[in-house]
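Researcher: Please predict.
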Amino acid sequence: MLRRRFIFATAAATALRSRRALAGAALGHKERVDRALAARDVDRPPFSFWHHFNLPTPEAHADATLRFHRDYRTDIVKVMSDFPYPKPAGKWYELMPEANPFAPQVKALNLIRNGLNGRAPFVETIFNPWNVAEKLSSTQEVQRMKKDNPQALLNALDVIARSEANHAKRAIDAGAAGVFLSVANANSATLTPEEYERFSLPFDRRILEAVSGAKLNILHVHVERDYLRFFPNFPAQVFNYSLHVSHIPIADVRREFGGVIAGGVDEVNYRTLSESELASQWHAARAAAGPKYILTPGCSVPNESTRTELLRLPKVLGA
């Protein structure tokens, strides 16, 4: 009898929570995200947006991140990563693995964790090894090496991937719910599909595989249609891309990717979008993506966005 009462009570509590969501009662940030990941009913889609702060110290970076979350009530705190990868003393590509390549960022993550106190999940941004190689040298130099000395480039990318995998683990240890892996080279402006498969795919996967047990890994891709085939099996719960830059319909992405889709907001023209335009983008994206959906832009909104412009999105959502 007691067991039956317990089962009935549990079922009633579950139904009550579901009715609360359906009725539009406000959920907490963490619960809203968890329900979206499980394709359960939510009061509104969880949302996040972001831009770079470019601040010099971990303390300033953490303060700006927490203030942005408080001001705009984001459900997921996307921690930007603006501290550089360590440069070697000799040639840029003569690298050794780094156990802690972004030590200032780890300090910022710990401060952010303490400031959030479990009220909202946060994810750590990691730029993929190809992007790090470009920052250590230049876009032109990496392309030259790809042609003239591909093995040296592959060796450098391998070391960067190993180091960034170490950092990803440190981020999870610091309390991050996952990593936000940024892949900006899955497009013909940078690499052919065959080149991406050789010079980037295995290294990008390795970073997410290092933290495959995290519950909120986000794969952020500057992608063209011919490259979508590389990503459905990545160990990431969320796929984030720019609908408005790539012109790939969300319905097409949904056919390729069974997890959560994040996107829908036009980041390029964000500053001039009205509340009604933001609402229209939100509803269209949610209709195409289905219940596994998080409302975000396709990439950073402009750094110079004003407070009034930034407030439009949470206002439209009733955040």
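Model: The beta strands are 77-79, 122-127, 178-186, 218-223, 238-241, 260-265, 293-297.
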